[in-house]
Amino acid sequence: MHIGASNIIFQNALKLRWNTTLAETLLWERLKGSQLGVKFRRQHPIGMYIADFYCHQYKLIIELDGSIHNEPSVQQNDIIRQRNLESEGLKVIRFTNEDIYKNLEIVLSNIKQNIHTPPSGGRGAGAGGLAKRIIPCLDVKDGRTVKGVNFVDLRDAGDPVELAWQYSQQGADELVFLDITATHERRKTMVELVKSVARQVNIPFTIGGGINEIMDADILLNSGADKISINSAAVRNPGFINELAAAFGKQFVVVAVDTKNVNGKNLVHLNGGRIATEITTEDWIKEAQDRGAGEILLTSMDHDGTKGGFDCGLLGEINKWITIPVIASGGAGNTEHFITVFKETNVDAALAASVFHYGEILIPDLKRELKRNNIEVRI
After folding, report:
1. 87 by DSSP, 3-state: which?
2. Residue of 216, 258, 304, 311 marked active site
3. What confidence tens digit (pLDDT) does each residue in 296-351 have?
4. What is the reported pLDDT for 230?
5. N or C: which end of the chain has fewer CB within 10 A?
6. What are phi and psi of 303, to 5 degrees?
């Protein structure tokens, strides 16, 4: 969860991750690898802040304070920072560096207690948890935004950079750009598109399509993308997820999964849905999470473009056990579909394309309706 973290915040977080203090290093040695039963992340971007340690499952932030935090001005900033984070449904606990050096076991005991007492409302939709995200998706082919039904019959939907600017003005929380023919046609995602979008929008955006190597991701992130999305390359080489997570951090890695029900089984499909595999969607998502995915973008091919609603059955089952954010994709046709997917599945975000591209749903109207239905969103 990044709560609208800018690209600058992501870059600063990456720098801090490689320049940790001694106290941070000592605590990380006891947190990493789910030693306390949950996963923590180091130097994690959250809005305009960077958390020293963050547990998504329990929305828990751990802050380590050095001597500078005794300064009155810094203490005041800490109070404001904590108030802002707690307003987003996060819990913040603080320790001093001396606590780590002298009382590490007591610190760990305190953390364990807080792990099992999440903020008021917990993860439930509309119960005071983190705000749900609304994410327009722009499928890009030959430099234009396109949209089809069940991954076929594509039609033009406009200039992706112009649409990105419009969505950022409307209040979209994030954007996703997928070069839907990149893998199929063996070409790379357009770096110039990423640079153009980065110049125009002030909200996080993810880029995907044809990312097969660490260098591909590095170029895209350095060009202005906030996160990268991998799909077919990850299935063909699962270790690629590990490599990306190790190189850039889990929060930069989105694993997109295209799923279709075949003879009663949810099966993963590759190359923009053109190639079926024998891999079950549930097993693949578990493996992707274990290997270091920071988010799952789950698209139901059976629902995609139909405007008949999200696949709440599959999304709900997966979100019962997954510990990283899930983005629901495929099937949005009206405002009620967004209300339903958040209430029935409690996913972290909902993604749509055509209903936004063609003005059938306006994001400000959608968010107001979600708010009226007690679903927390940022207006």
Report:
1. helix
2. 258
3. 999 999 998 889 999 999 999 999 999 999 999 999 999 999 999 999 999 999 99
4. 95
5. C
6. -100, -20
Q: Which helix (H) or strand (E) holds 51?
A: strand 49-55
Please indicate, yes or no, whether the overall pTM of this predicted structure exceeds 0.90: no
- Beginning with the edge strand found earlier in the chain, give each strand of the sheet holding 49-55 in spatial order: 41-46, 49-55, 60-65, 91-96
Catalytic hit among 52, 139, 173, 348? 139
Tokens 């053109």 sit at which residue? Answer: 274
The answer to whether 348 is a known catalytic residue is no
Residue 307 Cα to chain centre, angstroms: 23
- Say if residue 287 is exposed, middle or buried (CB neighbours under 10 Å; 0-12, 13-18, 19+): middle
| pLDDT reported for residue 199 | 82
**pLDDT tens-digit map of 129-146:** 478 999 999 888 776 776
Query: 124, 64 in Cβ contact below 8 A?
Result: no
SS3 category, 248: helix
Q: What is the phi-psi region of residue 264: left when phi exceeds 0, alpha when psi lies from -120 to 50, beta otherwise? A: left
Average pLDDT, the chain: 84
CA atoms within 13 A on the CB side of 231: 28
**Beta carbons of 253 and 241 less than 8 angstroms apart:** yes
Residues 91, 118 contacting (CB under 8 angstroms): yes
Residue with tokens 């063609």: 358
